[in-house]
Amino acid sequence: MHDIIDNIDAVHDYVGVMQIGDFIADRKTSDACERCLQRITEAVIKIGEDRMAEIAPNIPARAIRGMGNMLRHEYDAIDLRYIFTTIERDLPPLRAACEAALKDVP
Question: Is 0.85 topped by the overall pTM?
Answer without folding.
Answer: yes
